[in-house]
Predict the structure.
Amino acid sequence: MLYLQNSQLGITKPFEVVYETISRDSKNYYILDLRDVTEEIKREKEKIKVSLLYTLISDLMKIILEETNKQEIFKKVVERFTAEGRYKYACIHLRDSRKNIVRSGEPGIYSICLNISSKEPYVFIISKDEEFYPAEVQIISNFLEEFAKVMDTFTFYERLKRISLYDPLTGLPVRNFFVGVLEDLINDARKKKEKVVVVAMDIDNFTTINSLYGYSIGDRVLKEVADRLKQVVRLDDFLARVGSDTFVVAFKTKKVSPAVNSLISRILAKFVNPIILNSHDIPITFSIGVAVFPDNEESSERLLADATQAMFEAKKLGGNTVVFYTKKSKEVEESFILRKELIKALENKEFILYFQPKISLKDKKIVGAEALIRWKKGDTLVPPYKFIPILEESGLINEVGLWVIEEACNRIRDWRKKGIDIEIAVNLSPVQLRSSKFISYIIQKLEEHPQEVRNFGVEITETAIMENISIVSVFLKSLTELGIKIYIDDFGTGYSSIAYLKNLPVYAIKIDVDFVKDIHEDQKDYEIVKTIINLAKSLNLKTVAEGVEREEHERILTKLGCNYAQGYYYSPPVPAEKFEEIYKKFTKKFSSEINKM
Ligand code: C2E
Ligand code: CA
Ligand code: CA
């Protein structure tokens, strides 16, 4: 290529040069063919620009869908457009005012201004030192149209539906997605008189892998297990990750036993060799549970629950084994009766909330309370471990959960009037977080109490979060926007990925009773608690110790820098009136101690 300059016009243009020699009549002729390629070069440049722009926009769409704060979204959009010198300047502001302006960079020579046709009208200005290509403007306009739609679908439920159904760590479908597909498989099998097999596989001793090698190796193990399982399953099998270290396969078949046997031998063959990471040999075995439609349950949720229960049986047998689900008829009958009683209990308002104080270790003040449900069945008070699993199994937990929230908000209001201005935290069960419908009910319920939510907290176990990370992370962001504090319950008992935790808007970690109760005599527990507290500090999170039963516990925890404590040493969970008395006593004790100083 050659650049030629026209000195009269003062312009330089690119030319393609073809040079040929022709001999005729023993003379040599030279032919110089010049072709102006200005347009071609421009089109080439445009193509590159456009493909880069597509990459930028697909990244932006992901960011926009995951972020719920409007101002943050604007900030990220302008920053991305100006990053790496793509554009010199980008800016978003309301159409008729320059208030709330968000911008990045300094204006260049050429600018375009485009409307964002969301309900609240904004404009988007972008600028650089060269002319805009028509295709470029078109792509940016298309993006702004999508962008406007996202801005207008700000309701929580709509956002959830847009969120990915895949687990970011392993790339496998998540539980919700699996349950939906399983439902389809069951319906199809019903018509064709086929069977549906659900095989749940839990990695044996995964908690040990995590504590021996650390969470980041734990993550890599999960990823490698997922990759190997992907090679094991056949095209029509549906593989998903339904829990922290639980994977599940579902498929249709006419002959159950041969199909299951074949799957299991393929799994065994794939895991003959250990996983090798950082020169550690990590052997992998599974506890496997199998449930079959229509021999076991009919609904997808229940069928998965059966497979999971069989898997737990396999765990109890020491792991590395397979158990087929069989109904234990007596147990089933009992839980059926209990289920009926629980439906009545809800109608008859037989549930009550007990409250257990959370104490600040710095100044020994009551700063909050955990709401714990009780069932007043005649004269007896039934503890939650006896009925919560049945509420969860039957789906009743959602209704009861909404009642708990309502009751806690009423309590916040009532106590505030009485001068008890503290936070109340409720427990949310993993089942409540499995369905986006139930999650949106929770948000709706909380939005009915705008005055109370600033004193509201939720406790969620790490396993419940990990089970459905993409939906739950949006949920947690929405809670934070409402001013609600988030506690990770039973920390250390399940599997959690610190990498995820770091990115979630968590306020505090609750250290499980099991680690705290022997902290004064068990060196290992002491070390674990110390590690959790330090880890929390490094992530800028507060810590709450559960199960504080002795003065020694308090002393050790204070020394380790734990922020809050909860346990029988201060008070067991008590009814609201009793809590008020305890609160008064604490405030008195506190002020008399201050007076003594
Ligand atoms: P959790 O969230 O881990 O609650 C703490 C449990 O530890 C409570 O048992 C509490 O009574 C007990 N505890 C408190 N202090 C001490 C202590 O010093 N030592 C010992 N050993 N234990 C102590 P509770 O009330 O029986 O609740 C058991 C579980 O039931 C809760 O565990 C929570 O997961 C669930 N739960 C309770 N209420 C609700 C609710 O409203 N909704 C849901 N979804 N789950 C609930
Ligand atoms: Ca709790
Ligand atoms: Ca707990």
